DNA sequence: CCAGTCTCTGACCGATCGGTCAGGCATGAT
DNA sequence: ATCATGCCTGACCGATCGGTCAGAGACTGG
């Protein structure tokens, strides 16, 4: 069996538990039990419970930022397609992280660990709506955005299967064939 | 100002706090402070914290059950339309309750208070998918189902505005005009 | 006036929370 | 042998959690 550092084990187990029971629903004791070490060991490797959360979210948040940056120079239609593909891909690679970020309550999302995430979500939402300011488009974008995350969380389908399906439904809902006559 | 019983006040404040901070993130102290009474008063009116939750969910759960029952005799296409309309309407009338039910983590949803909800969600999901067993349709149904709930939660738009928009996006995503050649 | 009921509360309980701390046990360089 | 360093732990801390309980106050019918 592969040799893994205690620190990485802690992150792995914490991601699992946070995604399953929520941040507040997971105690340091629970994580320690999952890792097979003492609670004090967690706090030797990490300054606090919040620090574990922050480190878990960090990678996903950075990639989300990169995606948003990649979208910026594109025109509305291209950004919309790239946003759908990129977001589905991102959320499939960060299932657990997505669960704990999106599963968190509104108030919870305003913790410092998530501070820089919110503007990125807004940007992504705008891209999903093809930069339209029409409230209908914006709401539709939000529905798809959050719907995709939620499905990925509690679905145990193969990511490869889900990928095409999710992109498909997002396209269908967001990209109107030839809008009017 | 209208005269309200302490009991109703407790339910009102609890719904607010649960929706905002989550069940685990809300303490009896918090609710008592919001109501303006002591924690002991909460436990005079309700046997436990769980009991408050159960009573909050009850009405929404019953109406969801009624909706699902109403769907059963219809054919696939009619059930799909009725499900969309009915669900959007339901979730707009029970915003806070929807927030705490859907915002809860997977494990949380398996508490006894929600036990009878899960099969109803499955039935609703099937209706959204026009009773198709195609995985694509099922996933699309789930995306829309959860997406709608999530949007309603943190949106402060007028319910009347949202209603048409949500029904519209759901139809667009789920009902395929003339599917194939 | 009294007894009974309803509503409410402060004081208290054991359990658990996140977090601290002094020290044990390796390993490796001097 | 000695010391330093990295990793880990049991014991402990104050705070807060959900929940209990005896009793205070208000209001009622007899």
Strand content of chain A: under 5%
- How would you sum up the major sheet of chain A? none
Order of helices and strands of chain A: HHHHHHHHH
The counted number of beta strands of chain A is 0
Largest interface: A-B, 41 and 41 residues
Indicate the CATH class of the largest domain in chain A. Mainly Alpha
Oligomer: homodimer
Computed structural class of chain A: mainly alpha
pLDDT < 50 stretches of chain A: none
Instruction: Give the helix level of chain A as a range of percent.
Output: over 70%
Mean pLDDT reading of chain A: 91
Topology:
Two copies of one chain form a homodimer.
Chain A lengths: L5 H16 L6 H8 L3 H7 L3 H23 L4 H18 L1 H9 L13 H12 L6 H20 L4 H16 L7
Helix pairs in contact in A: 1-2, 1-4, 1-6, 4-5, 4-7, 5-8, 5-9, 6-8, 7-8, 8-9
Chain A binds a DNA duplex (30 and 30 nucleotides) through helix 3.
Short note summarizing the structure:
The structure is a homodimer of 181-residue chains. The first copy, chain A, has helices at residues 6-21, 28-35, 39-45, 49-71, 76-93, 95-103, 117-128, 135-154, 159-174.
How would you describe this structure to a colleague?
- The structure is a homodimer of 181-residue chains.
- By secondary structure, the first copy, chain A, is mainly α.
- In chain A, 71% of the residues lie in helices and 0% in strands.
- Chain A has 2 domains: 6-45, Arc Repressor Mutant, subunit A (Orthogonal Bundle), CATH 1.10.10.60; 57-179, Tetracycline Repressor, domain 2, CATH 1.10.357.
- The longest helix of chain A is centred in the first third of the chain and has 23 residues, at 49-71.
- The first copy, chain A, starts with 5 loop residues before the first helix and ends in a 7-residue tail after the last helix.
- Chain A has 9 helices and no strands.
- Chain A has helices spanning 6-21, 28-35, 39-45, 49-71, 76-93, 95-103, 117-128, 135-154, 159-174.
- The structure holds a DNA duplex (30 and 30 nucleotides).
């Amino acid at each position: 069996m592969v040799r893994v550092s205690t620190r990485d084990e802690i992150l792995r187990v914490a991601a699992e538990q946070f995604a399953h029971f929520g941040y507040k629903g997971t105690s340091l004791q629970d994580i320690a039990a999952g890792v097979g070490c003492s609670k004090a060991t967690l706090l030797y490797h990490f300054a606090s419970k919040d620090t574990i959360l922050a480190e878990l979210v960090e990678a996903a948040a950075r990639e989300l930022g990169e995606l948003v940056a990649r979208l910026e120079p594109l025109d509305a239609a291209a950004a919309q397609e790239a946003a759908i593909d990129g977001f589905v891909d991102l959320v499939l690679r960060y299932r657990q992280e997505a669960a704990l970020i999106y599963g968190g309550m509104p108030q919870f999302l305003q913790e410092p660990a998530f501070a820089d995430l919110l503007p990125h979500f807004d940007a992504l939402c705008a891209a999903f709506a093809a930069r339209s300011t029409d409230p209908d488009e914006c709401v539709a974008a939000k529905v798809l955005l959050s719907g995709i995350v939620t499905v990925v969380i509690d679905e145990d389908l193969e990511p490869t299967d889900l990928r095409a399906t999710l992109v498909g439904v997002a396209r269908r809902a967001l990209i109107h064939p030839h809008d009017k006559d």
